[in-house]
UniProtKB/TrEMBL annotation:
Residue ranges of coiled coil: none
PurM-like N-terminal domain ranges (all copies): 38-148
NCBIfam families in alphabetical order: hypE
Annotated Pfam families: AIRS, AIRS_C
GO biological process terms held by the UniProt record: protein maturation
SUPFAM superfamilies: PurM C-terminal domain-like, PurM N-terminal domain-like
InterPro entries in the record: HypE (IPR011854), PurM-like_C_dom (IPR010918), PurM-like_C_sf (IPR036676), PurM-like_N (IPR016188), PurM-like_N_sf (IPR036921)
Family: Belongs to the HypE family.
Organism: Elusimicrobium minutum (strain Pei191)
Chain ranges of the PurM-like C-terminal domain: 161-313
The protein, known as: (NiFe) hydrogenase maturation protein
Length: 335
């Protein structure tokens, strides 16, 4: 399979990052694109604008806690938000398979409308295509988002420094495990996707703490492990996670113990990681906990003084091991 695309190329981990850098970027010369951030910061009439795009192919289309419509809006909102932007407008592109039940389509569109209202964004343009049976899997969605940069918000991996604290906004792996449970009809109880818009939390963080917030990233494909590994490599800094402090719900703990899945490498759709100045970390945590989508936030790691671009896991017994990412994916088509 050396010269063929595999599911690993889209999993958000090491293979995926290598594919983007070695195959895709060589054809496109752009300073903004080379940053490989969740959104591109561009200038229009001297104003900083954030722009992002994403596609959604989740299987199944409906899952506990939401559907593909929820993902399409929240994912795009969150990409702009963790990049230091205040999102305003979204596009909606639909690729619909012939034979999709109209009632299912309307459920999806209703979810899009409700999430857009919750996030305070407007759907302003779109496109619809219908393909023959087998040409898609029920429905695929593409969304793009645009917003204004929040004053002085500069979140880049190179800004992190020794002693910075790693803060996770809540319980991890809920989306990935919920989709796995629904897809394979595993019958595990108490699982629900965490899909949610994070723009109100991130805006509050940037407005209050400004440059003390050094980096933020939403934790989708590749999970917390993938996000931190990418940040560490870009910053050429090492990061240590305390395994016992990583927030997990009781239901997810039970599920991963049965399934043998690593929650650190499992997708989320309503969580982000914040790397903040150590002196402000407790205040950042306190603010996060005032929001419904941040009530389970925890400080769970530190940026180290060493500079190898690695992520380490500190076990409850005090031992430390280098994080090894999966070559493939716990579950393809997670979003």
């Amino acid at each position: 399979m050396k010269n063929k695309i595999t599911l690993a190329h889209g999993a958000g981990a090491e293979v995926s990052r290598g594919f983007i850098k070695k195959t895709l970027l060589k054809y496109f010369k752009s300073k903004s694109l080379a940053e490989l951030s969740d959104s591109a910061k561009i200038k229009i009439n001297s104003k900083d604008i954030l722009f992002t795009t994403d596609s959604y192919v989740v299987n199944p289309v409906f899952f506990p806690g939401g559907n593909i419509g929820d993902l399409a809006v929240c994912g795009t909102v969150n990409d702009i938000s963790v990049s230091g932007g205040d999102i305003k407008y979204i596009s909606l592109g639909l690729i619909i398979e012939e034979g999709l039940d109209l009632k299912e389509l309307e459920q999806i569109l209703k979810a899009v409308a409700l999430r857009a209202k919750e996030a305070g964004v407007e759907i302003v343009t779109g496109d619809t295509k219908v393909v023959e049976r087998g040409g898609a899997d029920k429905i695929f969605i593409n969304t793009s988002g645009i917003g204004q940069a929040i004053a002085d918000a500069t979140v880049k991996a190179r800004n992190i420094k020794k002693g910075d604290k790693i803060i996770v906004s809540g319980n991890l792996a809920e989306h990935g495990i919920s989709v796995m449970n629904e897809r394979h009809k595993l019958g595990l109880k108490g699982l629900k996707s965490d899909v949610a818009p994070l723009n109100k939390i991130t805006k509050a963080l940037f407005l209050k703490f400004d440059k003390d917030i050094h980096m933020t990233r939403d934790l989708t494909r590749g999970g917390l492990a993938g996000a931190l590994k990418e940040i560490a490599e870009q910053a050429k800094k090492d990061i240590e996670l305390e395994e016992s402090r990583v927030p997990l719900s009781k239901a997810v703990k039970g599920a991963v113990s049965i399934l043998g899945v690593d929650p650190l490498q499992t997708a989320n759709e309503g969580k982000f990681v914040c790397i903040a100045d150590a002196k402000k970390a407790e205040s950042v945590l306190k603010l996060l906990k005032t929001f419904a989508y941040g009530k389970d936030a925890k400080i769970c790691g530190t940026v180290l003084k060493t500079r190898k671009g690695r992520v380490y896991i500190k076990t409850p017994l005090g031992a430390s091991r280098a994080l090894a990412e999966h070559e493939g994916s716990n579950l393809p088509r997670i979003c």
